[in-house]
Design goal:
This protein is α+β, with helices and mostly antiparallel strands. The chain has a domain of 119 residues: 3-Layer(aba) Sandwich (Aminopeptidase). Helices cover 29% and strands 32% of the residues. The protein contains five helices and eight strands, in the order ββαααβββαβαββ. An eight-stranded mixed sheet has the order 1-2-3-4-5-6-8-7, with helices on both faces. A hairpin with a 5-residue loop joins strand 7 and strand 8. The protein starts with 10 loop residues before the first strand and ends in an 8-residue tail after the last strand.
């Protein structure tokens, strides 16, 4: 059984704070989501407007309350640098899917892998038994992030994603499982 905390988590270490979204983040989210890399490899709406950011941020708390998602803002030195979320949650099966984006200014520093690892460890701590992630085959940066966060590539799913141009494409599925201690 998943033991959902009453309130949205705040996860903090020496490098990063993952906290619930605040409406004051909307301007930064709007700016970051103009990045062509985020637009290419995520499903953010296009064009990405301030109104979309406002709506998305306001819906995060309800998604948590409904046990549909855990979506957190990544803050480093007081600056919003990434988004990480556990979504597509199937509570009965104890599984969820992780997704993330990183601001262009913070890429290449390992922050995404760190945030993915922090949220995945939290998920395992409250009872999740599997966390997966989907990437486009050509998104090698995201695949490296997942491997660095301890995920393993499982398989290629044929025609499992639709690109923005409407064409169907494959996706690669990665997964991670909690460490299991076997008692003798």
């Amino acid at each position: 059984m998943i033991s959902w905390p009453v309130s949205e988590p705040v996860l903090v270490d020496q490098t990063l704070m993952l906290r619930p979204w605040d409406i004051q983040d909307a301007g930064h989210v709007t700016q970051i989501c103009q990045d062509p890399g985020i637009q290419e490899f995520t499903t953010v709406p296009l064009p990405y407007t301030r109104e979309i950011a406002d709506f998305w941020i306001k819906s995060r708390s309800k998604s948590y309350q409904d046990r549909n998602a855990i979506s957190l803002a990544g803050i480093r030195n007081g600056e919003l640098v990434l988004s990480v979320s556990l979504h597509n949650i199937k509570e009965f099966d104890h599984v969820g899917e992780i997704g993330y984006w990183v601001s262009p200014a913070a890429r290449g520093e390992g922050l995404a892998a760190h945030a993915v690892e922090m949220l995945t460890n939290f998920a395992f701590g409250i009872g999740f038994r599997r966390v997966s992630a989907l990437t486009l085959p050509e998104n090698s940066a995201s695949q490296k992030t997942l491997v660095k966060a301890g995920f393993e590539m499982e398989t290629l799913l044929r025609d499992a994603m639709t690109k923005r141009d409407g064409s169907q494409t494959n996706s690669v599925i990665f997964s991670k499982f909690p460490n299991v201690k076997i008692e003798e």
